[in-house]
Amino acid sequence: MNTKHFVTIFSFLTLIFFHATTLATTPTAHAPSQSPAQAPTKPLLAQPPKKSKSSSGAPALDSVASSAPPLSQEPIVQAPPHKGRSRIPTDVAGILEKVGGFSVFNRLLKSTEVLTQIENQLSASNSLTILAPTNDAFASSLKPGTLNTLTKEQKIQMIQYHVLPTFISLSNFQTLSNPVRTQAANTYDYPMNITTEGNWVNISTGIVNASITATVFSDDQLAIYRVDKVLLPLGVFAPRPKLQPSPSPSALLAKPTKDSSSNSSSSGSSSMSSRADGPGGASEDNDDDQKTNSASSASDFTIRARMMSFGAVIVSMVATKYILVLI
User: Fold this and answer.
1) Is 110:97 a contact under the CB 8 Å cutoff?
2) Is 119 helix (H, G, I), strand (E, B) or coil?
3) Closest CA to 132 of 180, 88, 93, 176
4) Is the bond preceding 179 in cis, omega lying within 30 degrees of 0?
5) pLDDT of residue 132
6) 8 A C-beta contact, residue 88 and residue 132
7) pLDDT < 70: residue spans in the chain
């Protein structure tokens, strides 16, 4: 009894000790977890807008259009009122001199005599549009001495490239189809592409991208716009390879090619050889074919005969062995 009583008491004390140990190691309440204090972050600085560039290195259309100031429809020089049916031709050189900043372009208009052509066309009631670069445009677009390296014909083509053979109001540039025709030679050597974005007008020559910055003069016959760069045409500053004219059908018939003559001679020689052979040559070929066929059939017959004899020998040997077994 004492032993059982001792075991019972020991077990009870062990259970109490285990329960007390469990209560000591378990927290009575779970405090809310707190993350370590973080330093207050500074507000991000506003990043300046990035200017996107096109593949050619020139500013893209959206960035330039957003930064360009809106163009005013009001011309710098007002057109004089017309009295009656008589009309005095517009003094282009006088307008450029009055506005100022176009002395280089004005001098080239006079030295190349393009100004005389413009006055004659205006007198004949023809309409024109002039894209006039400023003196700053010449300084930024051309290296010093570049104009002195050009021939008179190249200067004429370059200045005529700045003249469009029709009147274009500022709102009608978006209706143009590219390439735009100019007073220069042709659209292959002197292409011009014009694109618009709102009031912004971009002029691409394949070498430079220019923009219209102001309306200098405008009436119902002549429009003069100020551009920020000299329009450098490909035909003067980066000539394209000349297009080869296609030969006329009469020239093709008059001069046969060497291939056709060689083909005709070869066909003639083949026809002559076929005539020279005649039916006799064909019969000889047939005889040779028949001889070849007969020889091949004879060899096949010999092979079959040998195989049949070899089979008969084997059959006779088997039969003899069978008879001996029976005996």
Assistant:
1) no
2) helix
3) 93
4) yes
5) 97
6) no
7) 1-73, 77-88, 242-301, 305, 309-313, 315-316, 318-323, 325-327
What pLDDT sits at residue 308? 73
Token readout for 173 is 């540039």
Q: What is the pLDDT of residue 26?
A: 46
Residue-level pLDDT at 304: 72
For residues 249 and 117, is the Cβ–Cβ distance under 8 A?
A: no
Q: In what order do the strands lie in the sheet with 209-218?
A: 163-164, 128-133, 222-227, 209-218, 200-204, 193-197
Please give the pLDDT value at position 247: 59
Which segments of 50-148 are extended strands (E)? 128-133
pLDDT of 259 = 52
Query: What stretch of H or E contains 200?
Result: strand 200-204
Burial of 306: CB neighbours in 10 Å, binned 0-12, 13-18, 19+: exposed
Size of the chain, expressed as the number of residues it contains = 327
Which helix (H) or strand (E) segment holds residue 274: the answer is helix 258-326
Rounded to whole angstroms, the Cα distance separating 163 from 151 reads 19
